[in-house]
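Render this sequence as a predicted structure.
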Amino acid sequence: MTTTRVSDQRLHVPAGSAGDGPFELVVTPESAGWQQSSLRVLRLEPGGEHTLPTGPEEYVVLPLSGACSVTCAGETFELAGRPSVFEGVSDMAYVPRDSELTVRSREGGRFALASARCDRRLEPRYRAAGDVPVEIRGAGSCSRQVNNFCSADSFEADRLIAVEVLTPGGNWSSYPPHKHDEDRPGEESVLEEIYYFEVADGPAGPGLGYHRVYGTADRPIDVTAEVRSGDVVLVPHGWHGPSMAAPGYHLYYLNVMAGPSADRAWLICDDPAHTWVRDTWADQDPDPRLPLTSPTTTPQEGRA
């Protein structure tokens, strides 16, 4: 049962409620009520393909499950993909604005198309899974894995920032709560953010997690959402976190961010009431279950 607060129901987008044709999910600046960040999740049947113009947006095509080819601007990239988000780090393709993007899949699958409105037209590029920096962040019950496939410091784009986070069952991530909704050079940057969730199944069926967003006195926002696979939470502003993985169910989320500044930076500010938690990590080890996935191996039995 969804526990989203009535005041901000529109910010929790349940699975299946924002599809369009072959897309299981479509979030655009217009539907989100902001300026730049977008996410589409494309499902292709075996042998299927889909073409769309990129227009004023730069894209990253990231397999969630399955393999595909990506054709754009006279280039074709073969993405090996993965069986699921809980079974490996994926390769990806970057597609520039003002081009045409075609995704084809021989065996079918699901593919995230993260995008952002941008100014510069960069070259199309491929990034191998083995080149994606994998970071273990936090410690103890706040441990999580971050796949920095399109982070600001590891991959060139004009505005788009995107990463994957895997949180072992029972752990909290996006914690301490933080925000990025003010322009404070060197301290905080303005970024609209999309959280797209998938939750590992348990022995009796689908799992669940929870996500929290709350605001300030000047800019109120109030979301407490029970999330399941395919759900989205939109973060236009405010403190966000924790993302809570229920015991027994690993939690995955894809973060898609973009902002108005030409300086593409992911700068956050902790909620001062909770930033002390970071100091406790110095005396704790990371969760030994991490990393949950790698570019070359699937999780051990019982982890997925």
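Summary. The chain has two helices and 22 strands. The first helix runs from residue 29 to 32.
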